[in-house]
Amino acid sequence: MARRRGECEAAPGSSYVNREEAYRVAVVVAELDRELPEATDLAVVAPLQPQVALLRRLLRQRHLRRRVRVGGADLLDSDAARADVTVLSPMLAADAPAIAERRVRTMTHLWSSLLTRTRERLVVVGDRDHWSGGDGPLGDLLGGGPGPAATPARLALVDALRTAGTGVEVDRRVDGWTADLVVGYGARRVLLLLDGEPDGPALRRLLARGNALNGATDDLVVVVPAWRCLTDPGRWWRRSCPPADAAAPVGGAGPRPILERRTHAHRRGHGCLRVTRCTGWPHTSRRPSAVGR
């Protein structure tokens, strides 16, 4: 996310606009248009109509190689309207009016469509300092400091976990190793690693990190495939993690992650490990299986 402050100011129709941010978005879109393959679908989304109208005017002045879709929260309103790459202008900045803050931060349909209907990459151009200090999916991710990119999968999972009422910490260090997300619910914690790795070596490094965390803590360590975060992250959480009041494993053995073999979807680049239930909890008796056989 760019550190682009700008000013969220009043616009006609009891709405708001951030002009400086819009100009920066136009520059970013032009750069992406030059760099991305011609077949890549590119969309630009802003929460309020005056910002959408300004972005359309600015982009019409540029000579782009491809058609760039520009719209509001309803631009990606169906699976058929998905975009490969989405550029978001979230508009809010320091000293934004309280009404604008409430309107944008509570637009759940905006966040839902962005997170579930962006295939490859979400680019956010806005005031990083402002968003990292507030609520919402961007705030949860940015509040943990610099870390992995705010991918659609990561944003979707954090948003679903917040909705489920859990506490979420981002890029938390545990005995010298980093968990992508630490989820607290009741008296328990779950350490999550997000698997969007592009190749075998990167996957092996991810698994090595998971095994190190699993040996360093009694908390459950889970590797979550990116495609699972995008399809139904809330359902995955309810099914895959033990209830907060579940009894501890018998015999003193700590919970272990289950890493199942890769799916055909991963070989196509759409997913990674199918994971993740822990042995020893009452609701499952599954055993770990080999990865990549």
Shape: globular
> Which stretches of 5+ consecutive residues score pLDDT under 50?
246-293
How many domains make up the coordinates?
2
State the total count of DSSP E strands.
11
Number of helices: 11
Structural class: alpha/beta
Query: Could you tell me the strand content as a percent range?
Result: 15-25%
Question: What is the spatial order of strands in the main beta sheet?
Answer: 1-7-6-4-5
| Helix percent band | 25-40%
Q: Taking all residues together, what is the mean pLDDT?
A: 75
Give the N-terminus to C-terminus distance in angstroms.
Answer: 38 Å
Listing every helix as H and every strand as E from the N terminus to the C terminus, the arrangement reads EEEHEHEEHHEHHHEEEHEHHH
Give Rg in angstroms.
20 Å
Largest sheet: 5 strands, parallel
